[in-house]
Amino acid sequence: MQNGTPWPAGDADFARINLPIDQAGGLPSIAYTDPAWLALEQDRLFAASWSFAGCVHDLAQPGDVLPVVVAGSPVVLIHGEDGVIRAFHNVCRHRGTVLVDRPERGRHLITCPYHAWAYGLDGRLRSRPHFFGGEKHDRADGADAPGLVPVRSEIWLDWIFVNLSGKAPELAEHLGPVHARIAGYNLSGMRHCGTLAFDIKTNWKFGFENYIEPYHVFATHKRLNDVANMADRRAPEFERHVLWCSYRIKPTNQDLSVGLPYFPMKDPAIGRRGLWFVVMPNFAFEIFPDHVVTFICTPLAPDRTHERLDIYVAGDAAMDERHADGRQALLDAWREINGEDVGIIERMQQGRLSRGFDGGRFSPYWDEAVRHIARLVTEAMTAPTAWVPWTPRPG
Ligand code: FES
Ligand SMILES: [Fe+2]
Fold first, then answer.
1. Looking at the predicted structure, is the pLDDT value of residue 251 above 70?
2. Rounded to the nearest 5°, which phi and psi values hold at 263?
């Protein structure tokens, strides 16, 4: 960190991140507690890169509309009458009122509640009543009529990503390190079977730091440790903004699910492992032979995070009634496992209020990935304004 930044943490606090692992420490506490730090993260990380915004299944039909917040900024996802899902800034072009405040279905227009400007599902302004006075309704279909401002968006499987800055590399490139490691799976038939939501009193980074490191499993997740103990686990790896980790599992993981069908896979060996990824800044997911779970952290405040988990099973067969118990067992298991993590990461947040904490110490075997997240965040926070995250920095 350069001198002159608005944070009281000094250069030495940030320099510790890059020391040899046995001397290194994590981000200073200010990175987890300061509203100004989060505001800059929203800009430098969430707006500048590809952020997860919502699921396709949330707006499955033309006319479905979903308001979301990305990088602290209101965005609306709209399933158009042409079948295309688009993203727009969720704000009226007249006086800046938020247009959509709840999920809706069967819409043909997006009408502002303030002065009734109406936009088509393609974002074009269609009418603005009384705009020129009197009773006349401006049809507003001229080229200069101010339509909704589009947000760059792309879809991978069930997941809609947006890039608010418009400058990030293509989504396929952003996800490149993931695609290279899941080529043996065919997830195209995955079916959504449940969503879990948690409001947590913690900083969003603790969600991902905890998600990627398996060091805590033996102490925090006793039941999970019985499924795959520490000897079956490996330290996480990483490439740029993507981190991953895996472990060996029993052929059918009875503690996580009950006899659900497997995804088609080229190599039976991958049917014996769990593989999970963090794609900075806000998307993570885990692949098992018989299910996929996403893990999204959305910062609401420095010490408040919304977590969303979506669970998918393998094809229509897995959605059959005879697998209802298996699907329910899966949801129950993830509610229990994530609940165990929630208690811990709330205590991590409380620990950042201590005047006696200095950034801590890292396990030389397990914690390189946690250190890498600290590096990624620091890199983005200190980069020149024009820098596009996860690309080489000038100079
Ligand atoms: S602010 Fe939307 S129509 Fe006036
Ligand atoms: Fe955990």
1. no
2. -65, 150
pLDDT of residue 1: 44
Q: How far is the CA of 236 from the centre of ligand 2 (A)?
A: 14
Burial of 46 (0-12, 13-18, 19+ CB in 10 A): buried
User: 244 falls in which pLDDT band (50, 70, 90)?
Assistant: very high
In short, whether 94's Cβ falls inside 6 Å of ligand 1 is yes
pTM to 2 decimals?
Answer: 0.94
54-155 CATH fold: Rieske Iron-sulfur Protein (2.102.10)
Using one digit for the tens of pLDDT, what is the confidence trace for 268-305? 777 788 899 999 999 999 999 899 999 999 999 999 99
- pLDDT tens digits along 126-170: 999 998 888 777 777 666 789 999 999 999 999 999 999 999 999
pLDDT of residue 390: 85
Q: Buried b / exposed e across 231-251, counting CB within 10 Å, b at 16+?
A: ebbeebbbeebbbbbbbebee
Domain boundaries defined on the chain: 54-155, 181-377
Which residues, 6+ apart, have CB-to-CB distance to 306 below 8 Å? 197, 198, 199, 200, 297, 298, 300
Is the Cβ atom of 92 under 6 angstroms away from ligand 1? yes
Query: What's the 112 CA to ligand 1 centre distance in angstroms?
Result: 6
Give the distance (Å) from ligand 2 centre to CA of residue 16.
26
How far away, in angstroms, is 111 Cα from ligand 1 center? 9
Q: Is 273 in the pocket of ligand 1 (CB under 6 A)?
A: no
At the top level of CATH, the class of 181-377 is alpha beta
In angstroms, the CA 263 to CA 274 distance is 13
**Which ligand has its closest atom nearest to the C-alpha of 207?**
2
Q: Do the Cβ atoms of 49 and 163 come closer than 8 Å?
A: yes
Atom 4 of ligand 1, nearest CA residue: 115
Q: Is the pLDDT of residue 6 over 70?
A: no
